[in-house]
Amino acid sequence: MDNNVESVLLYDEEGKEIEFDVLTKLDIKDKEYVIVAPTGEEDIDAIALRIEKDEDGNDILVTIEDDEEFEMISEAYDAISSDDI
Predict the structure, then answer these.
(1) pTM of the predicted structure, to 2 decimals
(2) What is the pLDDT along the chain (85 residues), one digit of tens a residue?
(3) HAMAP family recorded for this chain (predicted)?
(4) How far is 41 from 49, CA to CA, in rounded Å?
């Protein structure tokens, strides 16, 4: 995924398109992740997604379901977020 991407469009369970701001991109253990938050929504938590490639080589965003992987990403994001303060 291009480091200059500022927002992405994702779809909810009903197929409604929602714009998300890309807060940061992380490279951890040879995997890429993005942290996103709904555009204009300040009271909604950020979401971590893993970047994978589809069969055509295009980037796709995948929900992280493994608790250990999610915790690793959360800790990395918290560390860089606290550095920004």
Answers:
(1) 0.81
(2) 656 669 999 988 999 999 999 999 999 999 999 999 999 877 778 899 999 999 999 999 999 999 999 999 999 998 987 765 5
(3) UPF0473
(4) 18
Task: Round to whole Å and give the CA distance between 63 and 75.
Answer: 17
Q: What are 29's two structure tokens?
A: 């253990």
- How many domains is the chain built from? 1
Contact 19, 7 (CB under 8 A): yes
Whether 1 is in a domain gets the answer no
